[in-house]
Every structure is written in structure tokens, then in C-alpha cells.
Amino acid sequence: MTLRQSLLWLLPIAALSGLSLAAVTRPKPLVEPGLQVAKNGDVLEEQTRQPIAGAYVVVRWLEESRAGDKVEGQCLSRTVVRTDEHGHYVIPAPHFSLASEHAETRYFWDAHAYAPGYADAQARAAHPHPVGSPTPGSQALEPIGLASDHAAPEQRVGMLADMLSRFSCDPFAKREPNPIAERIYAEGYAAACLPEPNGAAKLLARLRGERLGDESCEQFRQASNMP
Fold first, then answer.
1. Is the per-residue pLDDT at 4 higher than 60?
2. Which residue has the higher pLDDT, 170 or 189?
3. Per-residue pLDDT, 91
4. Checking phi first, is residue 225 left (phi over 0); if not, alpha (psi -120 to 50) or beta?
5. CA Rg, the chain, in Å?
6. Are 175 and 169 in contact (CB under 8 A)?
7. pLDDT (tens digit, 9 = 90+) per residue, 19-49?
8. For a designed S-S bond to 43, which of 31, 55, 141, 154 qualifies (C-beta 3.0 to 4.6 A apart)?
9. Using H for helix, E for strand and C for coil, what is the string for 185-218?
10. Helix (H, G, I), strand (E, B) or coil at 8
11. Residue 120, SS3?
12. Angle of CA points 44, 47, 52, to nearest 5°
């Protein structure tokens, strides 16, 4: 075999080796540390640091992809729990696969808490900071602080609408009744309509994701099966 024939024989092998190396070194999606481990923490009253029993806590696992200026995302999983008498909650580990292999995709999670009459007291990122490093079993989180809310009815109903969207995997879908939604509906109705309708009544449509007429309070009461 001549030298030229030997070189020609080696070219396909070199090409295949290059493709294999490129596949191995291709950047992977950005995955937040501790993404799929169980999580636990506490919900506290911001000023007194006393535990809030019965607070709702939601954790959502999210995917976000970028293609140039276009950003798309989806909610992969959601879990809602309530705190015990000590204000403590436990979120089980989720079960889902990371489908994308593109470097422009990131996987992350967020967490929020809600209790009637309270508002999120902390200007923080999408979730409480982890305490220490993730372990194979569970990730401990900093406490979530809630403060007693004394906002005007318009502000309170707007906050409730925002909170309801955070408890949903699809904030743009029609709001279907569920325990957390019904509790937020009831609080929104009380803020906007009791003892009589006020300026917040027109905002009730945001809670249900649908149009309401001039008699917002009456329509909301009928739609929400409230007394």
C-alpha cells in the first residue's frame, strides 16, 4: 500500500473521531444544582419569626429555551403542600426527564408561599436560597417570610391574582377550581365586595381569568359558589 493510499484510508477514521469528540464536548443545558432533590423549609411571620401553620407552599420545575431573541418556556412539574403546626413543609423529589440537549436551554425551579392575610415579605429570587450543599436525600432551604398585609383592596386583589398565577403550571389557562384557588377567590371576594363593593371589584376578573360584567361581585359570587 502506498503512502497516498494509507493517508486516504485514515481520513474517514479521523473524520469520525472528530465527530465523536465534538459530540462529547458539546455544551450541555444549564441545570440548576439540586434541581431534582427533595426540599424542606419553614414559613415564618416576617416580624415575629413565628411559624405560620397551614400556609400553602408551591414548587415548580421549569424549562426555558432561547433561540436568538425568542424565549420559550414550560412548566415540567408542580407540587403544592401545606405547612404543619410548626410551619414546616417538605416537597418530595420530582420525577421528570430533562429532554433537551441544547446549550441554550436551562432547567430551574421556583418556590412561593401563601397564607390568607399575608404577603411575600422578601425581595428575593425565584426561590429561597439553599442552606448548605444539596445531598442525595433532601435540600434544606432558608425560611420563607410572610408579612401581615394591610394593603388597600385594589392592591390586595392584584397581589392575589399574581400569587394565583405562581401556583399554576399554566398561568394563562382558565383558572379551574382547586383548594388554593378557592381560598384565594374567597379572600379576593372579601377584599373587593365586603361589606359592600369597592374599587377592587373590577379586578376580580383577573382572579378567574375571564370577563366579568358590571355586577362583578354578584357574578364572582355565583361563579365561585360563595355564600
1. no
2. 189
3. 96
4. left
5. 25
6. no
7. 555 555 566 788 898 899 999 999 999 999 9
8. 55
9. HHHHHHHHHCCCCCHHHHHHHHHHCCCCCCCHHH
10. helix
11. strand
12. 25
Contact status, residue 59 vs residue 169, Cβ threshold 8 Å: no
Q: Which helix (H) or strand (E) holds 181?
A: helix 179-193
In sequence order, what DSSP letters do the residues of 16-42 get, joined into one string?
HHHHHHHHHHSPPPEE-TTTTSEEEEE
Query: Domains in the chain, please, with CATH?
Result: 27-149 (2.60.40.10), 151-227 (no CATH)
Flag whether pLDDT at 1 surpasses 60: no
Rounded Cα distance, 127 and 41, in Å: 11
Nine-digit cell string for 56: 400553602
- Which range, 11-15, 181-185, 206-210, is most confident? 181-185
Grid look-up 359592600 returns 196
Query: For residues 156 and 118, what is the distance between their CA atoms, to the nearest angstrom?
Result: 10
- For the chain, give the number of residues: 227
Residue owning grid cell 403546626: 85
User: What pLDDT score was predicted for residue 79?
Assistant: 93
1 against 149, higher pLDDT: 149
Q: Are 144 and 82 in contact (CB under 8 A)?
A: no
